[in-house]
Amino acid sequence: MKIVSPMATGNGAYIIHKALEDKIVGYQVKSYPPKLTYVPFFLKKAVNTKNANLIHTTPDYACFFQHRTTPSIITFHNYILDPWMTPYSSLLQNIHYKTDLRLFTKLAVTKANVITAVSRFTAELARKDLPTNIPIKVIYNGVDHNFFRPTTPKKNYPKKIIKVLFCGNLTQRKGAQWLIPIANSLKPNIKIIYTAGLRTRNSLPSHPQLDCLGAIPHQAMPAIYQSVDILLFPTVREGYGLAAAEAMACGLPVVATDCSSLPELIDEGQGGFLCRMGNVSEFAEKIQLLADNPAQRYEMGEYNRSKIEERFTVDRMVRQYTELFEKTLENSKHFTKNS
């Protein structure tokens, strides 16, 4: 089988589809720069999907790749059309989401043979908002737990400097606006290390407890997770939470926002702490608690590693998608024979 996956680069969805390409024979990601979506009608010329047996992509621009004679599967990695996100988007983004992107997404949904989502939360948002009777199947994203893994066990000993990692684009959606206020509420021995993200290349104002690593390639991220003690994830909305899952696979406790899909991934009090959105004092309190308790950091990290191995591996994800691809192709052949 030949499965073509047109994908814009520079986001978590692209990483997941590349993982499918690595594991599934016949699966091919055809990437394009995100700026090409400014002129979406050129997408069809930029990415050729005519010889595909099956098309698998995200719903936002899927309508430009779908063909009447080729079955298609669309996967919601998040649901940015949700009006709840309006305060965390720019004016131009909000106009885009309410007009052309909503139209493109609706067209993709009506043309799709199968719809999937990466969490129950995301599936429910899409189901309530879009005109479709097709059931939305949940396939959680998977982490390569052999690649994202702890190095040596983080023993129960105190450290002079505790490193807290924030990784993601420096946007309001990821909660970057709260990093400095959180840092201001922490003891001086706690440092927040942050990346510039996959799409943003800026940095925050200088601060004695903030260190910018710049843009880090995804292949280099395991070493980053292994070098820190806690993951800070103050996001306002996640379709799944890939960075949190990767950090969990590397044996880190997570302090995250209690929102969207994250309670499906992080177990409160066992793998970390879930805080009220934007509550700086609560985030700082939980980080400080973990900083002062190396045994608890270790136990939570071990719990998270086990949870990823049991429920969120890349092999499990690949197996579920492979079964779905084969079933969709078989149903398409059956329909063609009887039409």
For the termini, the CA-CA separation is 22 Å
Beta-strand segment tally:
12
Q: Output the CATH topology of the largest domain.
A: Rossmann fold
Please identify which CATH superfamily of the largest domain we are dealing with.
Answer: Glycogen Phosphorylase B
Write down the overall mean pLDDT.
Answer: 93
What is the beta-strand fraction? 15-25%
What is the count of distinct domains?
2
**How do the strands line up in the largest sheet?**
2-1-3-4-5-6
**What is the CATH level 1 assignment of the largest domain?**
Alpha Beta
Rg of Cα set: 21 Å
Unreliably modeled segments: 335-339
Structural class: alpha/beta
Order of helices and strands: EHEHEEHHEHEEHEEHEHEHEHHH
Shape: globular
Structural topology:
Layout: E1 3-8, H1 12-23, E2 27-32, H2 43-46, E3 54-57, E4 72-76, H3 91-98, H4 100-111, E5 114-117, H5 120-129, E6 136-138, E7 162-166, H6 179-184, E8 190-195, E9 210-214, H7 221-226, E10 230-233, H8 242-249, E11 254-257, H9 262-265, E12 272-275, H10 280-291, H11 294-311, H12 314-338
Parallel strand pairs: 1-2, 1-3, 3-4, 4-5, 5-6, 7-8, 7-10, 8-9, 10-11, 11-12
Write a concise synopsis of the structure shown.
The protein has 339 residues and is an alpha/beta fold.
Protein described:
- The chain is α/β, with parallel strands linked by helices and 339 residues long.
- It has two domains: 3-142 and 313-338, Glycogen Phosphorylase B (Rossmann fold, 3-Layer(aba) Sandwich); 162-311, Rossmann fold (3-Layer(aba) Sandwich).
- 37% of the residues lie in helices and 17% in strands.
- The protein has twelve helices and twelve strands.
- It has helices at residues 12-23, 43-46, 91-98, 100-111, 120-129, 179-184, 221-226, 242-249, 262-265, 280-291, 294-311, 314-338; strands at 3-8, 27-32, 54-57, 72-76, 114-117, 136-138, 162-166, 190-195, 210-214, 230-233, 254-257, 272-275.
- The strands form two sheets. Strands 2-1-3-4-5-6 form a six-stranded parallel beta sheet, sandwiched between helices.
- Helix 9 links the parallel strand 11 and strand 12 (272-275).
